[in-house]
């Protein structure tokens, strides 16, 4: 069996490969293994991904690559693994059902399964099917021991020992029934929120705009709701959002903006808007595209109790000095390797399966 160090080094090399595809530009480097086979071919896969999914813009795809290239270095992976006991395990086949809302959204699960020493059986979303299989081929080239350990399927999942499935609240009910006899992690709908006090700096609010608009707001780590004090003045908030005004030039985003605005106007809902973002008072955590919901709170103590009660609906809390596990403004889309979706330790789950 391939040892842990070989698995780590394979992902480090993958990080090096991805570092050529940055938001600052795509630049081929001579010292990257197998670039002759993979560099130009990966550019083609990026093109296919963009053509297949209108939400996958060049900027958003390269932003995802940029994050993973930074994460997949030797130091980060060693720190990530330092709290786990990698005893010799009996390799099992782990099925992953992936979402497709943002580029490479299922990569962390894929990474954890292979790093733990198990085989992986991947069922991708049709919305994001071009990038990961190609990166899997790169892994197999830099570390041939991965050959036979990675399988992609579009068919019904069969012959697996455990499953990690991500979907909506509705699909989660199906997953829980269908996989009830298997060890599993089943993820449901979650959204991220920001808590504002009115004391935020302009820089913090500008950073918040990245939490809201990156990936068009489609990720579970995107801020879809604000909690604000009574009589909060949204002027500074809207001023800070303005840097993202070119987002309205995207046809899919603009269509959603126009549709949701028309619905709100016909329903005579109160809302504020600036030409590319609407904010609406609403108790829900899940807001439509181009919309952020907000809700008033009386005191921070009562808000903390509410957030604790609603914890299973919340992925990230953006705040400044409110709770222990809060995330700084602008950092929701820059997760660390140990920022597990839904707060469930995927690697600990995998290491218990033997």
Task: Provide structural commentary.
The protein is of the alpha/beta class and 354 residues long. The chain has two domains: 4-188, Aldehyde Dehydrogenase, Chain A, domain 1, CATH 3.40.605; 191-318, Aldehyde Dehydrogenase, Chain A, domain 2 (3-Layer(aba) Sandwich). Helix content is 39%, strand content 16%. The protein contains twelve helices and 13 strands. Strands 10-11-12-9-8-13 form a six-stranded mixed β-sheet, sandwiched between helices. Helix 8 (202-213) crosses helix 9. The chain is globular, with a radius of gyration of 21 Å. The two termini are 14 Å apart. The mean pLDDT is 96. One of its GO terms (molecular function) is acyl-CoA dehydrogenase activity. Keywords: NADP. It comes from Formosa maritima. InterPro entries: Ald_DH/histidinol_DH, CoA_reduct_LuxC. This is Acyl-CoA reductase.
Summarize, please.
Helix content is 39%, strand content 16%. With 354 residues, the chain is an alpha/beta fold.
Multimerization state: single chain
> Which structural category fits the helices and strands?
alpha/beta
Overall average pLDDT: 96
The CATH architecture assignment of the largest domain turns out to be 3-Layer(aba) Sandwich
The biggest beta sheet reads:
6 strands, mixed
User: Poorly predicted ranges (pLDDT <50, ≥5 residues)?
Assistant: none
Q: How far apart lie the N and C ends? A: 14 Å
* CATH topology term of the largest domain: Aldehyde Dehydrogenase, Chain A, domain 1
Element order: H for helix, E for strand: HEEHHHEHEHEEHEEHEHHEEEHEH
Largest beta sheet: what is the strand line-up?
Answer: 10-11-12-9-8-13
The coarse overall form would be globular
- What fraction strand? 15-25%
Residues in helix, %: 25-40%
Number of helices: 12
Q: What is the fourth-level CATH superfamily of the largest domain?
A: Aldehyde Dehydrogenase, Chain A, domain 1
- Cα-atom Rg, whole angstroms? 21 Å
CATH class of the largest domain: Alpha Beta
DSSP summary, beta strand count: 13
Number of domains: 2
Pfam families: LuxC
Keywords: NADP
Organism: Formosa maritima
GO molecular function, one term: acyl-CoA dehydrogenase activity
